[in-house]
Amino acid sequence: MTPEGLTRFASRYAVGVTIDHLAAAVFARGMTVFARIDHAAGAAAAGLSIPPTELLIFGNARGGTPLMQAAPTIGIDLPLKALAWQDDSGATWLGFNDPAWLARRHALPAACDANLQAITASLIAVVREAIATG
């Protein structure tokens, strides 16, 4: 089951390699990587375990700022995030919040459509590059 608003792609790489590829693709497109969070390492530090799971937080102020000007609440969902995780069968997935879903969630006006389309195209491009690299 895929949660509402989540777009996901299968990756042939391990979680860490998938996030490495994603970070490289993000950087190559002039976006900023703000943080990389290894949830499995955090769980291990607490004496717990989960399958490999990493989050990359990234973005570009030129794309996100106009959205925040239109609806400041979208700041809870920006910068952009992509999550790589390993499921119970050992498959790796790479997912992100669908910008159209975010637009509905925050009631963005139609004036933001061009920005949302550009953000969506960039997200899909970097994700496809990350899962196809190599």
Automatic annotation (TrEMBL):
Pfam families: DUF302
UniProt cross-references to InterPro entries, sorted A to Z: DUF302 (IPR005180), TT1751-like_sf (IPR035923)
Residue stretches making up the DUF302 domain: 37-99
Protein name per its UniProtKB record: DUF302 domain-containing protein
Organism: Glacieibacterium frigidum
